[in-house]
C-alpha cells in the first residue's frame, strides 16, 4: 500500500477525486483527502484561503473522528461480539458534522479504508443530495 501512494498515478487519482468532489457536491466550498496512516492532508481545493494551521487541524480531526481511542474501543468491542478479527474492519464509514455555518461530510474510501474524503458545504445544503453525490463520486474513484 505504501508503494501505491508513492507513485504519480496515486497523486493524480487523489487530485481527480478532490476536484470531482469540489465540483459535484452541492453547495461545496471545500474538499480534500486525508491519509489516516500518515495523518496528512494529501490534497485539497477550497473557494477561500485558509491558514495552513487550519488545514493541518482538519487532518488531525479526521483521524480523531475515525480512529480516536474511544472509536477504536467501540470497533474492537463490536468485532469481539461479532467474532470478527483484523484491523481492516471499520464500522464508522461516514460522519456528518454540522457547525454554525457549514456542514462537513467525511467518507472512508471503500478500497483504501485509511483514506477519507472530506467535503465542506454551506449549511443550507440538502443533506440527502450531499450524501448521494459524494457517495457517487467516491465510488467512481478508486485509489
What fraction of the residues are assigned to beta strands by DSSP? 15-25%
Number of helices: 5
Helical/strand content category: alpha+beta
Distance between the termini: 10 Å
Question: What labels would you give this structure?
Answer:
single chain, 5 strands, globular, 143 residues, Beta-Lactamase, alpha+beta, five-stranded antiparallel β-sheet
Task: Write the topology of this structure.
Elements: H1 2-6, H2 8-24, E1 28-35, E2 40-46, H3 52-67, H4 69-82, E3 94-98, E4 102-108, E5 115-122, H5 127-140
Antiparallel strand pairs: 1-2, 1-5, 3-4, 4-5
Helix pairs in contact: 2-5, 3-4
Structure notes:
With 143 residues, the protein is of the alpha+beta class. The chain has one domain: Beta-Lactamase, CATH 3.30.450.30. It contains 5 helices and 5 strands, in the order ααββααβββα. It has a 5-stranded antiparallel β-sheet, sandwiched between helices. A hairpin with a 3-residue loop joins β3 and β4. α2 packs antiparallel against α5 and α3 runs parallel beside α4. The chain is globular and about 45 Å long.
How would you summarize what this structure contains?
The protein is of the alpha+beta class and 143 residues long. The protein has a single domain, classed as Beta-Lactamase, CATH 3.30.450.
Amino acid at each position: 500500500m505504501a508503494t501505491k501512494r508513492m507513485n504519480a498515478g496515486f497523486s493524480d487519482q487523489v487530485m481527480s477525486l478532490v476536484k470531482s468532489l469540489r465540483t459535484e457536491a452541492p453547495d461545496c466550498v471545500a474538499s480534500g483527502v486525508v491519509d489516516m496512516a500518515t495523518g496528512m492532508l494529501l490534497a485539497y481545493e477550497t473557494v477561500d484561503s485558509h491558514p495552513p494551521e487550519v488545514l493541518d487541524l482538519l487532518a488531525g480531526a479526521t483521524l480523531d473522528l475515525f480512529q480516536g481511542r474511544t472509536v477504536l474501543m467501540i470497533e474492537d468491542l463490536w468485532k469481539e461480539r461479532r467474532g470478527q478479527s483484523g484491523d481492516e474492519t471499520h464500522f464508522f464509514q461516514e460522519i456528518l458534522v454540522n457547525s454554525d455555518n457549514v456542514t462537513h461530510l467525511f467518507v472512508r474510501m471503500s478500497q483504501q479504508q485509511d483514506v477519507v474524503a472530506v467535503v465542506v458545504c454551506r449549511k443550507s445544503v440538502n443533506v440527502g443530495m450531499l450524501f448521494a453525490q459524494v457517495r457517487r463520486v467516491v465510488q467512481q474513484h478508486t485509489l
